[in-house]
Design a protein that fits this description.
four-stranded antiparallel sheet
């Protein structure tokens, strides 16, 4: 079992920045690709970004590419989502998730590819 805890959400103005963190723990918390998803009220959960276990490969949704970056520190069991140039449409609950492998983009953007999920952290961007 792997536990994931997100933090770093909050209220920010348009154009501002936030850095989300996700700390993993558990007996088998190593070796996972880590992704971020988000869900706005009344919307389906959507893919944001994912990073491989080694941190060498990553994918981003078109809506955040060039504004968001993803990184990880395996020594700290932590993955980060740096969000710059935030827009009101980025408002959502952000979830981190762990996947046992790192595959093609079309696979990693699907929520079903992930085994473990955090509880989410709220990000609100005011206009």
């Amino acid at each position: 079992q792997v536990q994931l805890v997100e933090s770093g959400g909050g209220l920010v103005r348009t154009g501002g920045s936030l850095r989300l963190s996700c700390v993993t723990s558990g007996r088998t918390s190593s070796g996972y690709a880590m992704g971020w998803f988000r869900q706005a009220p009344g919307e389906v959960r959507e893919f944001v970004a994912v990073i491989s276990w080694e941190g060498r490969s990553s994918y981003f949704a078109d809506s955040v590419a060039g504004r968001f970056t993803i990184s990880r520190d395996n020594a700290k069991n932590t993955v980060y989502l740096q969000m710059n140039g935030l827009k009101p449409e980025d408002t959502a609950v952000y979830y981190c998730a762990a996947a046992s492998g790192f595959y093609y983009y079309d696979t990693m953007r699907l929520s079903g590819s992930y085994t473990y999920w955090g509880q989410g952290t709220q990000v609100t961007v005011s206009s």
